[in-house]
Design a protein that fits this description.
Length: 267
C-alpha cells in the first residue's frame, strides 16, 4: 500500500500531481468562484466561515492569492514580517468577480516566472516554491465550495483533485501550530487513524505519537480508528465543512481517538 501523503526525494509529494496541474486548477477554480458572484448576494452569510459574508470570503480569497503570488515573485527564504500586499479593491460590488479573476492571473504570471522546484521558505512540509501553488489551489477550491454553500448551491469537486487536497492537508497539518494551536494536542500512544477515499482507492494513515503526529507508510497496518467516504467528502470533512456523522461517511474504531482528531485538527 502506498500512502499518498508520504514525502520523499526532497519533499516531493507522492500525490502524482505536479505544479503545472495545480496551477491550471487554480485558474479554473477561480473562474468557477467568480461565476458564482454574477448571481449571488455578497451579503449572504458563509456557513463554513462563521461571521463572514460572501464579500468577506471573496476579499480573503483574492487577497491570499495576491499575497502568495508576491511571495513567489520575491522568492522569500525566510518567514515574511508582514502580509501586506496591494489589493486594488474595486469600488463596485459587481466588479468583484473580475477582481477575483485578475488575482488568479497575477498568480499565473508568478507561476510562469519562477522555478517551482526551486528552494523557498514555506510554513509546511515542502520547502519549494511549488508548495505555494498547491496551497493556493486548495485555499481557492475550498472557498469556492464555501461560496456555493452560502448561495445554497450544490458542490462538485473533481475526485482526483479532492484526493490530492486530502493529501496536502494531512502532509502539512503537523506544521500548522503557529495558526492552529489545537494541532499541538494531537498526541497519542502510537495510535493510527486511517482515512480512505473509496472512489479513488487511496488511503492515508496518520500515527499519533507522544511527540507529535504524521503520515506513515506501511503495509497491512492496523488502524485504531477509520473514516471512509468519497474523496470530495473527506476533503470537506477535514476542513470542517462536513461533520463525521454525515451519511457520506463510515467510521469505525476508537471514538475517543476520532474525537481527539476532529476537536484539534481545525485548519
Amino acid at each position: 500500500m502506498t500512502v499518498s501523503g508520504d514525502l520523499g526525494g526532497g519533499g516531493v509529494p507522492r500525490s502524482g500531481l505536479g505544479a503545472d496541474v495545480h496551477a491550471d486548477a487554480v485558474a479554473r477554480e477561480t473562474r468557477r468562484f467568480a461565476a458564482l458572484l454574477e448571481r449571488g448576494d455578497l451579503s449572504a452569510p458563509v456557513p463554513g466561515c462563521p461571521g463572514w459574508t460572501l464579500l468577506d470570503l471573496v476579499r480573503h480569497t483574492g487577497g491570499v492569492q495576491r499575497w502568495f503570488a508576491a511571495l513567489l515573485r520575491a522568492g522569500v527564504q525566510e518567514a515574511p514580517r508582514t502580509r501586506e500586499v496591494q489589493l486594488d479593491l474595486p469600488e463596485r460590488e459587481d466588479a468583484y468577480g473580475a477582481w477575483l479573476v485578475a488575482g488568479a492571473e497575477l498568480a499565473a504570471r508568478a507561476f510562469a516566472e519562477v522555478d517551482t522546484d526551486g528552494p523557498m521558505w514555506t510554513w509546511g512540509a515542502d520547502p519549494h516554491a511549488r508548495f505555494w501553488v498547491r496551497r493556493m489551489l486548495y485555499e481557492t477550491l475550498v472557498h469556492r465550495t464555501d461560496a456555493e454553500a452560502a448561495l445554497g448551491l450544490p458542490t462538485v469537486i473533481d475526485p482526483v483533485l479532492a484526493a490530492d487536497g486530502v493529501d496536502e492537508f494531512l502532509v502539512n497539518l503537523p506544521y500548522a501550530t503557529p495558526f492552529a494551536p489545537g494541532v499541538a494536542r494531537l498526541r497519542g500512544r502510537d495510535q493510527v487513524l486511517r482515512f480512505r477515499a473509496d472512489d479513488t482507492g487511496q488511503e492515508w494513515l496518520v500515527q499519533l505519537r507522544s511527540d507529535g503526529f504524521g503520515l506513515i507508510r506501511a503495509t497491512g497496518q492496523d488502524a485504531d480508528a477509520s473514516v471512509r467516504g468519497a474523496a470530495a467528502d473527506l476533503l470537506l470533512l477535514l476542513y470542517g465543512r462536513l461533520g463525521r456523522d454525515a451519511e457520506a461517511f463510515r467510521t469505525a474504531g476508537d471514538p475517543e481517538l476520532l474525537d481527539r482528531w476532529f476537536d484539534n485538527s481545525a485548519f
